[in-house]
Design brief:
Order of helices and strands: HEHEHHEHEEHEHEEEHEH
Strand content: 15-25%
Largest sheet: 6 strands, parallel
Structural class: alpha/beta
Helix content: 25-40%
Strand order of the largest sheet: 7-6-5-9-8-10
Shape: elongated
């Protein structure tokens, strides 16, 4: 009995040491001391998608490792062995000190940010342009749509950082499944730019080119003058009179679905 107690104490000490070591490494990675620009993966689904799409994840922590592994067995059995190797259990208080807004799944990780995409070469699916978006959650939802439809990527103009932790959280880690970048309007990739505006042509009568840039303004302010000037065509989504606008992600989803029908996608 005495030996069992000693083993328990030793095991607890080892777990505490591992948690302290993980916290120290977390802070070093977040500060860029390892020479890697990192992105916060906040929650199980963000970590799951990042791993599935090839992210470099040097560290992941969980306040209840067993619960996260059980979730992996249920929702992502393909990743269960990798997560078993990767996850470091940390006390709840320590976990909550590492992330600004703790996720209900109690797991977080740091991943290396991919190189800036160049968007060079021919495109076989549209590239989404969010023209000075304001809402972090909406931007993340659009990235999730882009990944699901196989779009060529998402570009934002303006001040919003598409790699902000709240955007990555809303995008469920699918930033790693599609190119994401911020560009000034003059730096947008080449191709026919279709800008969505209530005064444009009804989208239902048009076939969206596979290489189009599809530009969407913010819900409050619409398209900027710079994107309007760059646009090759103004197009409109069907909308009942007296309804002022759709949610940004809803608009993008409608446009991508319309494109997918014309492109013969499933």
């Amino acid at each position: 009995m005495h030996g069992m107690r000693e083993n328990e104490v030793a095991g607890e000490a080892a777990r505490e040491a591992a948690a302290r070591e993980a916290a120290g490494r977390w802070h070093a990675l977040a500060a860029g001391l390892d020479g890697m620009a990192v992105v916060l993966l906040d929650g199980f689904h963000a970590l799951k998608h990042a791993l599935r799409f090839g992210a470099d994840v040097p560290l992941a922590v969980a306040e209840d490792r067993a619960a996260v592994l059980a979730l992996a067995d249920e929702l992502a059995p393909d990743l269960a062995p990798r997560l078993a190797e990767l996850l470091v259990p940390v006390p709840p208080a320590l976990y909550r000190s590492l992330v600004p807004r703790p996720h209900p799944t109690g797991v977080a990780a740091l991943a290396g940010r991919p190189p800036e995409p160049g968007f060079a070469g021919p495109r076989t699916s549209p590239l989404l342009v969010l023209d000075e978006p304001r809402n972090l959650g909406n931007a993340g939802a659009v990235i999730r749509l882009a990944a699901g439809f196989g779009a060529s990527g998402v570009v934002t103009t303006g001040d919003l950082d598409p790699w902000h932790p709240a955007v990555v959280r809303a995008g469920a880690g699918l930033h790693f499944a599609t190119p994401v970048a911020r560009r000034a309007v003059p730096e947008l990739p080449a191709g026919p730019l279709w800008a969505f505006d209530a005064e444009g042509e009804d989208l239902r009568g048009l076939r969206v080119p596979d290489d189009a840039l599809l530009a969407f303004g913010s819900e409050r302010h619409g398209l900027t003058a710079a994107v309007r000037e760059r646009a090759d065509r103004l197009v409109a989504l069907p909308m009942r009179p007296h309804v002022s606008s759709y949610n940004l992600a809803t608009s993008v989803g409608m446009a991508l679905y319309h494109w997918s029908l014309g492109a013969g996608r499933p």
